[in-house]
Specification:
This protein is an alpha+beta fold and 155 residues long. Helices cover 25% and strands 28% of the residues. The termini are far apart.
């Protein structure tokens, strides 16, 4: 084998090794800092509420309660701006579950109910036994599973 060929093979191996290192760093960065959220709208636009809608809103869920997992018994209020759940410290509910992503789930109010969006998590989100992606309607008492953690929507 010629000297030029040998040097090109060495250079190719070094380039492949660096590409591998950068891909590992990118994957670690994604796990540490979470996924990028492109849209922060609060769901479907709201119209003027009628009396029956106000009554429904009065009976709407007001809290999220962790029923299983390391944070069992933790309760957080639902805000009109929504709730972010994940491992990042910026989240409203910071999970210590190994199966949760940095920014795992967003719960936000719609015109008539609360909705949930999985934010591209690695292990997914299960609501009442069904895997969700975006725009999943949450009824009172809905069971949300993120890894070993189960969260319930309560009044």
């Amino acid at each position: 084998m010629g000297e030029l060929t040998l040097n090109l093979v060495r250079l190719g191996v070094i380039v492949l090794l660096w590409a591998f290192v950068f891909s590992i760093v990118g994957a670690l960065r994604g796990d540490l800092y979470g996924t990028r959220v492109l849209s922060r709208n609060a769901g479907p636009p709201r119209s003027r509420e009628s009396r029956s809608e106000r009554k429904q809103r009065k009976n709407a869920p007001k809290h999220l309660v962790v029923t299983e997992g390391s944070l069992r018994g933790t309760s957080i209020p639902l805000h009109e701006s929504g709730v972010l759940i994940g491992r990042n410290p910026e989240c409203s509910l910071v999970l210590t579950d190994d199966y949760a992503s940095g920014r795992h789930l967003r719960i936000y109010p719609g015109a008539d109910a609360w909705y949930a969006d999985d934010l591209g998590s690695t292990n997914g989100t299960i609501v009442n036994g069904q895997r969700i992606t975006t725009g999943a309607r949450l009824e009172p008492g809905a069971q949300i599973r993120i890894g070993q953690t189960v969260i319930e929507l309560r009044r």
